[in-house]
Amino acid sequence: MHWAGPDWSDDAPGDAARFAVNVARALAEAAQQAAGRAVLTEVDLKGWHSTLYEGCDVPSPAYIGRFRGDAHPDLVDYEVGVGPRMPGGLPDRVGVWASEVGLQAAAFMDQLRLALHALDAAVSPGARPTAVDELQEVVAVVAIAHGELLRIQSLPIGVVQGSGGAVGRQ
């Protein structure tokens, strides 16, 4: 077991402009998928990760577009957590174990699909929420989804201490 491989909690300084362009492209792709009501999959998450870091300096090419726990020596037991190291050596808050990431990510995507389907029934696809309760539903789904992505931390972005890396900040 290793904790987050090389430190990758901060992006390479020279990658800021490239990353900004990549974020815009990934958001455009996500918006297009959302408009078409495409079913989100783990492949989408990995694809967005690949798009975000295309052309950027990363500690290992194996990190891009793959989940922690995938069958690659750099990922098999790639564990993450946040906060200071505790006396036993683990970070204060430990993420989902790498060996469980695939199952947890699949379960998350299933739950997200159900939540989005329910949201479509409350707010017409393509429309903006017009009532407070509709807006609260949208915010709740987004907040829970963001929290689950951070909890599972499926993508290897090297966070041991910090704010969730570039993906978490987006």
Structure description:
Helix 1 packs antiparallel against helix 2 and helix 3 packs antiparallel against helix 4. This protein has about 170 residues and is mainly alpha-helical. It has a single domain, classed as Fic-like fold (Orthogonal Bundle). The C terminus is likely disordered. It has five helices and four strands; from the N terminus they run E-H-H-E-E-E-H-H-H. Strand 3 and strand 4 form a beta hairpin. The strands form two sheets. Strands 1-2 form a two-stranded parallel ribbon. Strands 3-4 form a two-stranded antiparallel ribbon. The relative contact order is 0.18. The radius of gyration is 17 Å and the shape is globular.
Overall pLDDT metric: 82
Helix percentage range: 40-55%
Overall CATH class: Mainly Alpha
- Largest sheet entry: 2 strands, parallel
Instruction: Write down the domain tally.
Output: 1
> What oligomeric state is this?
single chain
Query: How far do the termini sit from each other?
Result: 28 Å
From the spread of the alpha carbons, the general shape counts as globular
Q: What is the second-level CATH architecture?
A: Orthogonal Bundle
Order of helices and strands: EHHEEEHHH
The CATH topology: Fic-like fold
User: How do the strands line up in the largest sheet?
Assistant: 1-2
Descriptive terms for the model:
two-stranded parallel ribbon, globular, disordered C terminus
